[in-house]
């Protein structure tokens, strides 16, 4: 999942960015509302985390502009403003969630999982394609009774494939959701990581789940 963080406290911004990256998320970070709008103009995100009290444009204004232009990306406010009035206003403007600082990082990631489940109409933390299962809460992946160890980026890629099972995803769609603007690797990064996943998931298995659709991209499905 690709997440945008807009938080003007630079130490907190960096801490959240590092922790979410370690969890397998692709994260872009900025420090004011104008920057946030620039990022939102340039990429599609699965979740946006906004502080309210930011320079140039506050989080409420960012959310309001997003909704006015038809951008329904789930938004969480992460803020020190804890009055009932602030919470009600944020939720009424279209926020999916509102969290008060200081906060528990475990709770933050749990709430992110809820928001992204709702976006993709996935009711639980357990995803399944044939005998391949992924628990997004524990980050455990199994193929039948075989446990599969994945890197953070491999997990993120597999997650994106599984929440879109049976849908063909282009290389551009995958790259835009799994990698952020800081990535400096080669242009064939998607193909490389698909190969990594195939070795771990499909090698030695009678049913191959990760398929190439020539000229279009990749899909995970169980039917032939």
Quick overview of this protein structure:
This protein is 40% helix and 21% strand. It is of the alpha/beta class and 224 residues long. It has two domains: 2-119, Rossmann fold (3-Layer(aba) Sandwich); 126-220, Arc Repressor Mutant, subunit A.
Instruction: Say which CATH homologous superfamily of the largest domain is assigned.
Output: Response regulator
Overall number of strands: 11
Name of the CATH first level of the largest domain: Alpha Beta
Strand content: 15-25%
Backbone structural class:
alpha/beta
Q: So what's the overall shape?
A: elongated
Gyration radius, in Å: 18 Å
Total of domains: 2
State the CATH topology of the largest domain.
Rossmann fold
Side-by-side strand order of the widest sheet? 2-1-3-4-5
Count of DSSP-assigned helices: 8
Mean pLDDT: 90
What does this entry look like structurally?
It is a single chain. This protein is α/β, with parallel strands linked by helices and 224 residues long. The protein has two domains: 118 residues, Response regulator (Rossmann fold), CATH 3.40.50.2300; 95 residues, Arc Repressor Mutant, subunit A. The protein is built from eight helices and eleven strands. Helix 2 packs parallel to helix 3 and helix 6 crosses helix 8. The protein starts with a strand and ends with a strand. The mean pLDDT is 90.
Topology:
Layout: E1 2-6, H1 10-22, E2 26-30, H2 33-42, E3 47-50, H3 59-68, E4 75-79, H4 84-92, E5 97-100, H5 105-119, E6 126-129, E7 132-135, E8 140-143, E9 146-148, H6 152-163, H7 171-178, H8 189-201, E10 210-213, E11 217-220
Parallel strand pairs: 1-2, 1-3, 3-4, 4-5
Antiparallel strand pairs: 6-7, 7-8, 8-9, 10-11
Helix pairs in contact: 2-3, 6-8
């Amino acid at each position: 999942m690709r997440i945008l963080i807009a938080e003007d406290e630079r130490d907190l911004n960096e801490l959240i960015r590092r922790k979410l990256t370690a969890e397998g998320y692709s994260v872009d970070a900025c420090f004011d509302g104008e920057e946030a709008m620039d990022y939102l103009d340039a990429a599609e995100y699965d979740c946006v985390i906004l502080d309210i009290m930011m320079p140039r444009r506050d989080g409420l204004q960012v959310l309001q502009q997003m909704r006015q232009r038809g951008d329904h990306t789930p938004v969480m406010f992460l803020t020190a403003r804890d009055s009932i009035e602030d919470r009600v206003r944020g939720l009424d403007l279209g926020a999916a969630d509102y969290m008060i600082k200081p906060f528990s990082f475990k709770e933050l990631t749990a709430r992110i999982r809820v928001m992204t489940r709702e976006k993709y109409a996935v009711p639980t933390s357990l995803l399944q394609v044939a005998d391949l299962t992924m628990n997004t809460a524990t980050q455990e992946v199994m193929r039948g009774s075989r446990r599969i160890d994945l890197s953070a980026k491999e997990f993120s890629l597999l997650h994106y494939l599984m929440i879109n099972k049976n849908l063909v995803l282009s290389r551009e769609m995958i790259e835009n959701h799994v990698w952020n603007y800081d990535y400096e690797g080669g242009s064939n990064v998607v193909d490389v990581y698909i190969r990594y996943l195939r070795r771990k998931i499909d090698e030695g298995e009678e049913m191959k789940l990760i398929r190439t659709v020539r000229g279009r991209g990749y899909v995970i499905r169980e039917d032939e």
